[in-house]
Amino acid sequence: MIRYRITVTNRGTAPATAVKVFDTTPAYTTYTTTGPAATTVGNVTSEPANGAAGALTFDVGTLNPGASAVITFGVAIAQ
């Protein structure tokens, strides 16, 4: 399994509102619930089925200045 980690940081001086992160499983990989999608702030709003390729959506919401959200998900190399 390969684990992806995305860090989103508000480097501005005002709150960033309605922050969303969109990503997809890389080519030749499939999503795995062995390393389920997660975020330290907000919610996972969509993810592929276990063993499928596709899009992931994370609704982070509001990030205050200097705040970060860490998003993780796992994929397996397609056979």
Could you please describe the fold and organization of this structure?
Strands 1, 3, 4 and 7 form a four-stranded antiparallel β-sheet that branches. The protein has a three-stranded antiparallel β-sheet with strand order 2-6-5, with no helix packed on it. β5 and β6 (55-63) form a beta hairpin. The radius of gyration is 13 Å and the shape is elongated. The mean pLDDT is 96. It is built from no helices and seven strands. The two termini are 12 Å apart. The chain has strands at residues 2-9, 16-24, 29-31, 38-39, 43-46, 55-63, 68-77. By secondary structure, it is mostly beta strands. Helices cover 0% and strands 57% of the residues.
Brief overview:
The protein has 79 residues and is mainly beta. It has strands at 2-9, 16-24, 29-31, 38-39, 43-46, 55-63, 68-77.
Measured distance between first and last alpha carbons = 12 Å
Per DSSP, the total helix count is: 0
Q: How does the overall form come out from the CA principal axes?
A: elongated
Please state the average pLDDT score.
96
Please name the defining characteristics of this protein.
57% strand, elongated, three-stranded antiparallel β-sheet, 7 strands, mainly beta, 79 residues
Element layout with pairings:
Elements: E1 2-9, E2 16-24, E3 29-31, E4 38-39, E5 43-46, E6 55-63, E7 68-77
Antiparallel strand pairs: 1-7, 2-6, 3-7, 4-7, 5-6
